Amino acid sequence: MPSTTTIVTQDGEVVGEMYEENRQLVTIDQIPDHVEDAFLAIEDNGFYDHAGVSFSAVMRALYRDVIAMAKVEGGSTITQQLAKNLFLENDKTWMRKTKEVMASIYLERTFSKKKILELYLNEIYFAHGIYGVGTAATFYFNKPVEALTVPEGAMLAAMAKAPNTYSPLNNPDKAKARRDLVLQQMNRFDMLATEETMELQGKTLGINQSEQLEKPWLDDYLDIVIKEASDKYQLTRDELKRGGYQIEVFMDETAQEIAYETLQDDKNFFGSTEGVQASFVLMEQNTGQLHAILGGRDFRLGDLHRAKVPRQPGSTIKPIAVYGPALELEQYKPYSLLEDKSLSYDGYTVSNADGSFDGEVTMYDAIKSSKNTTAVWLLDQVGIGYSKSYLEKMNISLPDQGLAIALGGLEEGLTPIQLVESYRPFIHGGEWTDAHTIGRIYNRNGEVIGEVNPEKNQVYTPQVAWDMLRMLEAVVVSGTARAGDISIDLAGKTGSTQHPNVPSAIKDAWFVGITPVYVSSMWMGYDQTDETQYLSKGSEAPTIATKDILNELSKQQQLDQHFEIPDGVVDLQKPISLPTINDLDATYQIGGFSLLRGELTWTESADERVIYHVYKKENGDDVKVGEVKGKGSYKIDSVNIFQSATYYIVPYNTLTDQEGTPSNEANLSIDF
Question: Which residues form the Glycosyl transferase family domain (predicted)?
């Protein structure tokens, strides 16, 4: 018989149910004897004595052309009622009654009396969409069937004849009268003493329904669970609604609620009209478990689930399609100098968002500032096929063949779920895994029929993954994702796409984030694109909203605060910023082997890694006479007091192998 599928968290909390008939199956051993007695007393006291059919009752029913008589024993045995409900239509024909008798005899020959009673008590309807005594115990009394008292069991038995009529919610007076009749019948058949019967008849119905709190944030997650059950475990929605499964999921209800409440706040959304939508995905990075999923700001089961909708990812694709794969090649490092010029590739011309170009830029700064020209240039250097081979390791298959891939200009786009999967390797040693909601699935007999076995693939070396994480951290600290405040370590990448109908307007806005515990993605935009609907603020909005969610979650849970360097990995040095030196001074000093020495002094950078190259001006080419690291002075041992000399300093960046701007010139001379 159809049974309810329950969806529970790892803590055992029920977060969802699916059913065509709301029925939680229980065994006969779970049902107290006094509950069995109540049903037998009012429905079929001779149950253990007959062979399934009361032929006298059948003859009376046929004679009066009705199913049940108006006497307390009823017109049919429990076996006949079960046979009718399981196998037959509820019509009143001579043939139906004949089939009922035949089916009852079959049941009695096939099953024990205890099994027939168990089936009956699980099958019976208790009004308000409730089937089975186990579900009814929870619905009416907020307790398991094992804990039902005698009058509570009698109340449920009272409903068997006409559940809607005798519902304690619909007609409490009729329900009490019928319950008292059940207690009276239990006394009549020596199941209750007379004094106890009278005492119990004096009690109220004792209905105690649990308060059903509205939790609109659950549907978003459950929709993904249903899809995963179908895709990975071949369980259709119809099968889930009747199969009585228990599905353990990885939902973190606290995170789910926090994300939902954040997306309800209008201050996080900026658009030309109402109706700006969003989706949010939160994946636990260590396992790939999905802890929170929002399919929209007001999602309901059956709606468009935006976490599954592919969209243009904008610049969020740069780390996974360009920079990550490039770092796997020996010639590219985080501080390699890359092109930053407006170039044309067979008619495809690219410019930066701010319209400015640096000529050359490090990969570190290109990612931090989200340089479009650099990403396209580098993709052209490494090759589109090479780039796509890395995407395919993360189950991303693109039909695209053009350099627009570097900027997220895709035919089909990526989903928010795909983006959290593809950023996970950066925090997990280069390993990709598929995101999943389901841990285990049990059938109605409690047997495990499905268990998570995530797909995994090594995409990057641990060193490349860590270098990319550090560069993405810079994006949050001082780059395009610096908007908003965050209390824990966060790396990430922003992205936006141009509106096709409104110049300078934004169609999609993204932020993909990485913390020590989670990988997240957030999309904002409109479901339909036209000239009247566009975002008035870009990636800043999802960046701030994501930080709000993570900040609130860190208050509710004990989360790791800082990124930990993996074993065997060398930490990426922070960039060196070369100083501009305007205060170089040259003086003579007495002492040393030559009795007279020269000294150059200047204000050194706070970064002790800076090396200062010392140059002496000569006719023709200037001569490098020495260098000093991390301090603002240099000794010149060999000086000629009768000849002046001019010097200048050039700071040098060891990470990029670049010299900076020459200092002012200083003259070393003596006036006689």
Answer: 12-186
